[in-house]
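Fill-in record for Putative glucose-6-phosphate 1-epimerase.
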Amino acid sequence: MDFNTLRDKFHQPGTLEITPGEGGLPRLTVISPVSTAEIYLHGAHVTQFTPRGEPPLMFMSRKSHYVDGKPIRGGVPLIFPWFGPNLADPKLPAHGFIRTRAWKLESVTRGEQGAVAVRLTLAPDAQAREIWPREFALAFTVTVGATLEMAMSVTNTGDRPFRFEEAMHTYLAVSDIRNISIDGLAGRTFIDKMDHAAHKTQPSGPFGITGETDRVYLNTPDTVVVTDPAGSSSRGPRMIAVSKQGSASTVVWNPWIAKAAAMADFGDDEWPGMLCIETANAADNALSLEPGQSHTMSATIALL
Ligand SMILES: O=P(O)(O)OC[C@H]1O[C@@H](O)[C@H](O)[C@@H](O)[C@@H]1O
């Protein structure tokens, strides 16, 4: 659908405003009585969620690309059907291909207390089938209200089973990564990508981040709470909760100094301002779907 047709069909001032975003890519501004959010059709990428009176909850890199074929850096990239590099073919794009496709806006509805739900879909085209020859249908619903709710469903529309990984690669904005603490993963096993994928156990109690961190926590269906001592509008504490359903993995990532400097689409000095807490099904928690089956993974991001 071209931009003008999209706008004619869905633009509703005060609810869903459709404008050219960065790089001219179509951007949805979703407005609820208590918050706003932004979503690009490119990747069905949530680039911001701002409860009224609060600083934005999402980190966005000022160096992000906004072009066809490249992912947006920050917000919530959607990852499917593999997480990280493709182990069978390292030439394929990292984190799969759906974060760089143009998704289709299907509907906009107002629900309880004025929350606005936006539904986007993606089906494979010839290029996607070349990369991953499977038949599937994806639907991503973003509900913007007092919280940000995101649900991605995957349906196997083909005639043979497939296995996949997936993630909502959420970049939370924090005042300084060196001061935050993370609660909800104590005692869980994680794959430490900084240490040859060694399996380790998270000690008891909340923990902080003190260097480059890249971990897949397995079998972690519980809510994770990030406490930021200076994250609120008055520079006081704020707590962000990431709760989920249909997700068995939680990825924790911060690139720290050297990796930040090595990434072209990330400012060298931006690493203290972000923490990825990703709602995922990855590694040992990869999923399989038989023909006709669906799976839904959802995450709710809330200020406590
Ligand atoms: O640069 P990308 O492809 O967006 O990936 C960023 C990071 O995403 C994280 O989820 C991975 O665990 C890291 O290994 C990776 O570096």
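KEY FINDING: The chain has a mean pLDDT of 97.
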